[in-house]
Amino acid sequence: MFNGLARSFSIKRTKNLKNNCENCDGKEAVEAMAKNAKKNDLILRSSGIVNVDGSKNLASVFSKRGEKGVNQDCCIVWEEFGCQEDMIFCGIFDGHGPWGHFVAKSVRESMPSSLLCNWQETLAEASVDPDFDLESDKKHHRFNIWKHSYLKTCAAVDQELEQHRKIDAFYSGTTALTIVRQCGPCKRYSISLVRVYRACLEIILCGFHLWVKEAERISQCQGRVYCLDDEPGVHRVWLPHDDSPGLAMSRAFGDYCVKDFGLISVPEVTQRHITSNDQFLVLATDGARILVNFCGCVKVWDVISNQEAVQIISTASDRAKSAKRLVECAARAWKRKRKGIAMDDISAIVLFFHSSSSSFEQIQPVVPPAL
């Protein structure tokens, strides 16, 4: 199946890899792809940059440990995702709990490869479906394929994590925000976004509000949602008859102690078509927020406004250092505005859509499409 798909996808840069995978199944081929990508510096798992020759993408990544112990944030950028020159995968993961850093890293390692396998499988199934007509509505079908692939992937990743012999995720977990940027017909790019996130009320994904439907689902599963007296406005999820674990999220990988009481790992998946007005995207987490930012569309954490975030990134003298600059500005703002509160881990990925320098003077915050 993989070899047939590989030929149809015209994978030009991996002829040797493909020849070596003549007798491999899809999973083995994907593992070989990941190994080859790492060898060619197409995968970044730490602070740094990804800027492949000939690519229009430039990804800047930076993570700063907070004041609560080990850094439980982790990131990944995979250029030429699945050996496709027009695709890039970015993901940011925010662990929590005593094993949170292990959980976040485990999900980071397993999600991209699992997604790639499921994407190939879904494409193959769609290609033999008599009711499937890619030409009739390419945008719609392409998104549905990614959405179906992501749903299968998140379910598989969460199940695999539960069975992991070396990681105890019963009282630990991680949130996730990932994107796949893919070039469609006429070289128009689109981004598929997936979120397994902290509890939210609106498009802003945060830990201070709870989406009404999320709270209803948890209550229907006998879980409880309420705020502590010393944390007004910070809604948390609790067991039916025990004041634990107090999670400030409604969806996450892991946290199996409350998986039977409303917490789920089913992602929200949406799509946006990139236009010439979209200059960059930010994936960020400080433990309180995970955001998607198309040129400054929503607040970057509570300590930085929309305009400040856009200005910080757009005025960076070196795009490669834009993520570091954003994170360090957020850290300084935290210490200034939240005196006495231990700073959380802060991480960011800034993905620029255009290789050449562009003017950002006219950029205004734009709210992304509702889920």
Short précis:
The chain has about 375 residues and is of the alpha+beta class. The protein has helices at about 1-10, 15-20, 25-40, 100-125, 140-160, 210-220, 305-315, 320-335, and strands at about 45, 50, 60-65, 75-80, 85-95, 175-185, 190-195, 205, 225, 235-240, 240-245, 255, 270-275, 280-285, 290-295, 345-350. The protein has eight helices and 16 strands.
Structure write-up:
This protein has 371 residues and is α+β, with helices and mostly antiparallel strands. 31% of the residues lie in helices and 25% in strands. The chain contains eight helices and 16 strands. Strands 1, 4, 5, 6, 7, 12 and 13 form a seven-stranded antiparallel sheet that branches. It has a six-stranded antiparallel sheet with strand order 2-3-16-14-15-8, covered by helices on one side. The two termini are 33 Å apart.
How would you summarize the topology of this molecule?
Blueprint: H1 2-9, H2 15-20, H3 26-39, E1 43-44, E2 48-50, E3 58-64, E4 73-79, E5 87-96, H4 100-127, H5 138-162, E6 173-183, E7 189-196, E8 205-206, H6 212-220, E9 224-227, E10 235-239, E11 242-247, E12 253-254, E13 268-273, E14 280-285, E15 289-294, H7 306-314, H8 322-337, E16 346-352
Question: Which features does this protein show?
Answer:
31% helix, disordered N terminus, 371 residues, PPM-type phosphatase domain-containing protein, 6-stranded antiparallel sheet, disordered C terminus, PP2C, 16 strands, 8 helices, PPM-type_phosphatase-like_dom, PPM-type-like_dom_sf
